[in-house]
Structure formats: structure tokens, C-alpha cells
Design goal:
Length: 374
């Protein structure tokens, strides 16, 4: 007998038709093949296991260029072999009736010179406290390390990065994805430009909220020019503090961002609740405040993420505060998560120690519920 009827009603996100509203969130897992940041057979198995008929997968964050790299083991979308690897994954997800969008990523200051051919990471502004703070770490070929000292990007370089997003969007289209999601959260490059804790520029990309929002809007415009607005999405982390982020007035900032994004007719706006910092819930019991606030401003579909379980996801959709809910950690341990939620089956527990390792353990060895019963 089916339960949670709101979660399992159909929904259209832009041009993407879904049979249910349980979305797989973007999850960095460090399993691309090296060298080359290649999506390989292990990644294909992982995504295929988690594909469901009429369900949506958002890929793990995917580097748009070699200069955007910042996480060892993360896949890329800037070479032809990478495109071929993604083609195989997309085809496998489609064969199970699923939909899959590519999340486009530039890490900015959250990087290390070993990931960038010895080149200094670039960001909105110079902030030495970021790399001096020992709580900030990045994944490198030799393990976890403090980020390298960074520098402020020039206007010419900023504009070149917009072009890199366009090239990555074109490659995502060539790989057969159903759309593209722009990663503008979690303290990576676009978020670094948005928030005034990291953006101290005095040119047209800094200072006022409209100026700090400029880069995200330029990137959104160029990705939408490739995909159409109805197959383009943006992920935001209002009031998020991961990766040393802060803003003096996040409510005004993200309200303005949501309002400006209305012009593109996006497939959806993907909102991370501030009760989550990285992959850890830091505000137990807090409701979906960000989705509720931005629902009043953003006119399109909203996908909420961050700390949801089956019951709270059903409640937020039923209340109209979000149109779908993205699950992260539960999808890691439950490849058949939509079916488990729909049937009320118990969920397997995830092993945090294997989130960012490099083999099949803790990645493709979680069984479906039906397999555990045989």
C-alpha cells in the first residue's frame, strides 16, 4: 500500500517531467578514475543503482575546467573522455526511466595548488584567514590538506570563467543530460562572490548586493542560453557557513538573488537549509526556513534539501513550501530510497567513514531492501 501521497505525486520541473518528488541530491564521493577525473564503470554502477522510474538525480559536483578543480576524485566535464564517461552513465540512468542533470562546479578558493598544476587558486577577494583557519580542508592527491593561499581574480578572468561555464554546459548537453544545475552554494566560487564575508571587491563584481550577484546571473544567463531556462537550475545555500562563509545580511542577499533568478524561467531553484553544514546537521529540530522564505519570492519550482527525512519531506511538499525534496546521506545507504519511502520500509544506516574514499566499499555495496529479504 502506498504512503506519503504528496511525495509520490507527479511534478514538472521546467521541462523535466517526474513521477515522484524524491530527488537524489548532488553528492561528492571521490570515485572518478584517475588520472583524468573520468566518470568510469564504478560511478556508472553507483548512479544506475540509484536511478528510479520517473525520479531525478542531480550529479555530484563536476568541475567545469581544469582551473576549477579543487577536490581529488571529483569528476570533470572539460575533456572528451569525460564526456564519453558521462554519456555511459546518463544512458544507464535513462534506461531505468530516470532523469539526470549535471551539476556544474568551480571551487574557487577551496582548492590546493596540487589540484591546479601548481597555479594559485582564484576567488573574489584575498582572505588569508580562510587558508589560515585549520577547520577548512580540501581533498588532494596526498590526503586532506588546508587550502592553498589564493588571490583575487581579475575582471578578465571572471569573464573567462563565464565562458568556461558555457563550454561545460555544451558538453553536458553532448553527454545527453536532461539539464544543468549551477552550484552556487557551500562556499565555492559563485558563493564566494555572493557573500560579503568573502567578497570585498570594489569593482562591478563587489560591494552592493546587485554587484555581488552579477557573476551568478551572468553564469545563469550563459548556461540558460545553452539549455533554455526550463532545463537550467541553480543551487543556493542561504545563510550557509560551510567553507568559512558568512554574510552581513543573508536575508536581503538571497531574497534579491531569488527575485533576480525569476527572469530565467528556471526548471527549479535548489535550496540548502542552513540547519546543515556540509554533510552534518548542525541545527537539530529547525524547520525548512530558507525554502519557506524564498517561496514568497521565487515564482518557479523549489527543491528543498538538507536534513529531511521521509515524514518532514512529505510535510514540506504537502504544505506547498517545496515542490520536491533532495535527499543526500540516505541515498548513499539506500540505492532504492524512493521505493523504501513509498512503502514505509526501514532505511539502512550510512557509514560516514566511506563518504570520501576511493573504492566500492560504502559506495556500490549497499543492498536494496528486497535483496536484504532474500
Amino acid at each position: 500500500m502506498e504512503t506519503r501521497q504528496a511525495l509520490f505525486s507527479p511534478v514538472r520541473l521546467g521541462a523535466i517531467d517526474l513521477k515522484h518528488r524524491v530527488v537524489m541530491a548532488p553528492l561528492t564521493r571521490s570515485r572518478s578514475e584517475q588520472p583524468g577525473d573520468l566518470p568510469g564503470t564504478l560511478m556508472r554502477e553507483y548512479y544506475t543503482q540509484r536511478a528510479s522510474d520517473g525520479g531525478l538525480i542531480v550529479t555530484e559536483a563536476t568541475s567545469i575546467s581544469s582551473a576549477a578543480r579543487g577536490w581529488y576524485g571529483a569528476p570533470g566535464l572539460f575533456t572528451e573522455p569525460q564526456v564519453e564517461g558521462w554519456k555511459s552513465i546518463v544512458a544507464a540512468v535513462h534506461a531505468k526511466g530516470g532523469k539526470i542533470v549535471s551539476q556544474l562546479w568551480h571551487t574557487g578558493r577551496s582548492s590546493h595548488v596540487s589540484m591546479r598544476g601548481g597555479n594559485t587558486p582564484g576567488t573574489a577577494s584575498l582572505n588569508p584567514t580562510y587558508w589560515q583557519d585549520k577547520t577548512n580542508v580540501v581533498s588532494t592527491p596526498t590526503g586532506w590538506s588546508p587550502p592553498s593561499p589564493h588571490r583575487a581574480l581579475t575582471i578578465t578572468e571572471v569573464q573567462e570563467i563565464v565562458g568556461e561555464y558555457r563550454e561545460a554546459a555544451l558538453r553536458a548537453k553532448a553527454a545527453g543530460f536532461d539539464g544543468a544545475e549551477i552550484h552556487s552554494a557551500n562556499g565555492y566560487l559563485l558563493d564566494q562572490f555572493l557573500q560579503d564575508g568573502s567578497n570585498h571587491r570594489t569593482d562591478e563584481y563587489g560591494g552592493s548586493i546587485p554587484n555581488r550577484t552579477r557573476l551568478l546571473l551572468e553564469v545563469t544567463e550563459t548556461v540558460a542560453s545553452v539549455w533554455g531556462g526550463n532545463r537550467t537550475a541553480v543551487r543556493l545555500g542561504p545563510s550557509g557557513t560551510f567553507n568559512g562563509m558568512s554574510d552581513s545580511d543573508p536575508q536581503s542577499l538571497f531574497g534579491y538573488v531569488a527575485e533576480q533568478l525569476n527572469r530565467f524561467g528556471l526548471a527549479y531553484l535548489h535550496i540548502i537549509e542552513p540547519r546543515v553544514k556540509g554533510n552534518v546537521v548542525v541545527a537539530e529540530g529547525q524547520g525548512p526556513v530558507a525554502a519557506v522564505q524564498l517561496r514568497k519570492i521565487f515564482k518557479g519550482r523549489i527543491v528543498a534539501a538538507g536534513g529531511f527525512d521521509a515524514d518532514t519531506a512529505e510535510a514540506v511538499v504537502r504544505a506547498g513550501e517545496a515542490d520536491a525534496v533532495a535527499f543526500g546521506r540516505h541515498f548513499i545507504a539506500n540505492p532504492d530510497l524512493p521505493e523504501r519511502i513509498r512503502r514505509g520500509y526501514p532505511l539502512a544506516r550510512y557509514n560516514r567513514d566511506t563518504f570520501y574514499t576511493f573504492d566500492a566499499q560504502g559506495y556500490t555495496d549497499y543492498p536494496t531492501y528486497s535483496a536484504t529479504m532474500n
